[in-house]
Design goal:
The complex is a heterodimer of chains A (118) and B (115). Chain A is mainly beta and 118 residues long. In chain A, 0% of the residues lie in helices and 51% in strands. Classes of the chains: A mainly beta (118), B mainly beta (115). The interface between A and B is medium-sized, with 27 and 28 residues.
């Protein structure tokens, strides 16, 4: 079974600074997707960024980028120029891409609570 | 295009009562997934449904929990005889197709409190 581990329960960053959130995962599969979701106090789950394992290039969405290290099974999220609105719980998630299997099931880590200080 | 709708947003039930949580998927989406978030935890998969079919209920407790997605109307997650341990946020997600590159879009969740 796949597992996702977020080793930082809480992180803080100064406004306009850069912060990196860590995520590691365990899987025996070679084809999968990785995600970062943001959950603000409203509790709505918002997709921040997605990475396909077969792509070597790291995904980027505006101020959000990932460092995907497939051999190390590591998938960190970098937030540049942090803004007050970035304060939220961030969840790393895994989903298999194997056809015919449970490739619809998202497996989440426990989350990292990010505080942005003005 | 309206997003995934869930209601109610907050639900309070006494121990032993029934809880009914509703999820209306995005227009054109026929695949629905339910996840549960216990306090201080990430979301955990409960069940995957297509119209009129339960595809995978491996994450759902065997007793007291049931789910349906009828031909017409929203998907319903039902919890009978609720206990304090059922207090959690329940999220519904929908997708236009199964797996692969198909994205799951989440609703705002229903927070269930059992007193």
């Amino acid at each position: 079974a796949q597992t996702v581990t977020q080793s930082q329960p809480e992180m803080s960053v100064q406004e306009a600074e850069t912060v990196t959130l860590s995520c590691t995962y365990d899987t025996s599969e070679s084809d999968y997707y990785l995600f970062w979701y943001k959950q603000p106090p409203s509790r709505q789950m918002i997709l921040v960024i997605r990475q396909e394992a077969y792509k070597q290039q790291n995904a980027t969405e505006n101020r959000f980028s990932v460092n995907f290290q497939k051999a190390a099974k590591s998938f960190s999220l970098k937030i540049s120029d942090s803004q007050l609105g970035d304060a939220a719980m961030y969840f790393c998630a895994y989903r298999s891409a194997r056809s015919g299997g449970s490739n619809y099931k998202l497996t989440f880590g426990k989350g990292t609570l990010l505080t942005v200080n003005p | 295009n309206a997003g995934v709708m869930q209601n109610p947003r907050h639900l309070v039930r006494r121990r032993g009562q029934e809880a009914r949580l509703r999820c209306s998927p995005m227009k054109g989406h026929s695949h629905v997934y339910w996840y549960r978030q216990l306090p201080e935890e990430g979301l955990k998969f409960m069940v995957y449904l297509q119209k009129e079919n339960i595809i995978d209920e491996s994450g759902m407790p065997k007793e007291r929990f049931s789910a349906e997605f009828p031909k017409e109307g929203p998907s319903i997650l039902r919890i009978q005889q609720v206990v304090r341990g059922d207090s959690a946020a329940y999220f519904c997600a929908s997708s236009p197709s199964k797996g692969g590159g198909s994205e799951q879009y989440f609703g705002p969740g229903t927070r269930l409190t059992v007193t």
